[in-house]
Write a structure and sequence with these properties.
The protein has helices spanning 2-9, 327-399, 407-434, 447-457; strands at residues 16-21, 24-28, 32-36, 41-47, 57-62, 65-69, 73-78, 83-89, 96-101, 107-111, 114-118, 126-128, 138-141, 146-151, 154-159, 164-168, 179-186, 192-196, 200-203, 216-224, 227-229, 239-242, 249-256, 266-272, 276-280, 284-287, 293-301, 312-319. The chain is α+β, with helices and mostly antiparallel strands. The strands form 6 sheets. Strands 1-2-3-4-8-7-6-5 form an 8-stranded mixed beta sheet, with no helix packed on it. A hairpin with a 4-residue loop joins β13 (138-141) and β14. The chain starts with a helix and ends with a helix. The model has no long low-confidence stretch (mean pLDDT 85).
Length: 460
């Protein structure tokens, strides 16, 4: 058709050709076409998604299906059908570099996030976690339950049944190389071919991994910040004290294998206060952050067959506690806080007590003022009738002859009115004394005369 001719002669996209059947060929660009070699007729293929699919690459066949992928999705096409079916859409952030279909229908994927697989008929992506690599550029499963992996410039094998990885080096005939996408092939005889920038790697179908003896592991160097510490004898496990305030602790090890060219993988297991596991290619273990307490460091090395060797105890490390995190400091802080709380509480109680006393005094003053006001008012109320009695009584006594029979009685009544006037005056004098307007004037007095005078008032 005209679209295909335009793509072939004027298009800038790659054209991929794949044998579908002995008599049909698939031609894929940003669109799909099927060529019947018997009639030389071309028919377009459709997609169950809009706008077609760019750069589809064949990953393999499984039964009547052909599996294709690009960097975002996996598709399948039943041979003879007209439409590609979207099988798996990659999660956000996952980009496919390489894909290959194993004989059991499982699709193995090399992505920028690592190794993953999907079982045929299930739209689920299963990552295979590993600390040995991140991005996988080439992936190729063989017929013996192994997946051959190119990651960076290193070459690995993944043992599916054991869920273990093995790393290969120059002693295995593998040179450092960056293996290319879509460059793998499993031959009909079962051999594996994988292409890189510098070489083509061939793995014979009969190749089996040899077991490697336990390496000799030795702690060669200890450094705390910029200070190097002496390492004890080979037969002794070093005990290291890390002062508080230290920023970096480094342990450098040496692992000696019979195969000195084979690349080494180290697995550091820290047990105790700083428990963690570190898998790395570096012979140096660095602590950049740590918590106080005792820790033990064990090292095991990866063998060619993908196992870890027997852990060897490297060192015992005591990360000393800073003074501000010690028990006695906490106790001191608690004691200071309790003492401060005591003084604060005592001050609050003292102020509350002073406030209460002040309020009581104010209340007493208020009550006393009301009492004085009451007495003054009573004084004035009593003085008025008393004056009305005392004045006329005085005039009567002055005009009455002393020989009168009631003269003496009236005189006694008059003295009582005078006494009452003196008592009322005394109340006012006490008020004046309290306010400082007058003082108490004390004079001697004849008690006998005073008693006789009092008694005389009760004699009729």
């Amino acid at each position: 058709g005209s679209d295909l001719e335009f793509q072939l002669f004027y298009g800038t996209r790659s054209l991929h050709l794949y044998n579908e059947t002995p008599s049909t060929i698939l031609m894929l660009t940003n669109q799909g076409y099927r060529l019947d070699t018997r009639t030389m007729q071309v028919e377009p293929l459709g997609f169950d998604v809009q706008n077609g699919v760019d750069n589809l690459i064949w990953a393999g066949d499984y039964g009547p299906y052909m599996i294709f992928y690009n960097d975002r999705s996996i598709y399948r096409l039943r041979k003879g059908d007209q439409n590609f079916q979207l099988w798996i859409k990659m999660p956000r952030g996952v980009t496919v570099n390489s894909a290959y279909v194993a004989s059991d229908g499982r699709v193995w994927l090399g992505t920028v996030q690592g190794l993953a697989y999907a079982d045929f008929g299930k739209a689920e992506l299963h990552p295979v976690p590993s600390d040995l690599f991140k991005e996988v550029t080439a992936v190729l499963p063989d017929t013996k339950g192994r997946v051959w992996i190119g990651a960076g410039n290193k070459f690995f094998a993944y043992f599916i049944a054991k869920n273990q990885f093995a790393l290969f080096g120059e002693s295995d005939g593998v040179i450092p190389d960056r293996y290319l996408k879509n460059s793998g092939l499993v031959t009909r005889q079962g051999d594996v071919l994988l292409g890189g920038n510098r070489s083509i790697l061939m793995i014979d179908k009969s190749y089996e991994l040899d077991n490697i003896d336990q390496p000799q592991v030795e702690l060669k160097e200890v450094r705390i910040d910029d200070e190097f510490l002496p390492v004890q004898g080979e037969d002794e496990v070093p005990s290291i004290e890390v002062p508080s305030g230290s920023k970096t602790v480094e342990l450098k090890v040496e692992a000696i294998f019979d195969d000195i060219l084979r690349p080494k993988i180290y697995k550091y297991e820290i047990k105790g206060a700083n428990e963690q596991t570190v898998i790395t290619y570096s012979p140096v273990l660095r602590f950049h952050s740590f918590v106080p307490g005792e820790s033990e460091v064990y090292l095991s090395c990866g063998t060619k067959e993908g196992k870890w060797g027997t852990p060897v105890k490297l060192a015992e490390i005591d990360f000393l506690t800073p003074w501000y995190q010690t028990t006695w400091f906490y106790l001191l802080v608690v004691a200071v806080l309790l003492l401060a709380a005591f003084f604060i509480l005592r001050n609050i109680l003292r102020r509350a007590e002073e406030q209460m006393q002040f309020q009581l005094k104010e209340k007493e003053k208020e009550v006393y003022a009301k009492k004085v006001t009451f007495l003054i008012n009573i004084n004035h109320e009593l003085r008025t009738p008393l004056t009305l009695i005392n004045g006329p009584l005085q005039r009567i006594i002055r005009t009455m002859p002393a020989s009168s029979s009631i003269y003496g009685t009236l005189c006694k009544v008059y003295r009582q009115t005078e006494r009452m006037k003196n008592l009322l005056n005394m109340v006012l004098d006490l008020r004046k004394m309290e306010e400082g307007e007058s003082t108490l004037d004390i004079h001697p007095h004849e008690v006998n005369d005073w008693i006789a005078h009092i008694v005389d008032d009760f004699t009729f």
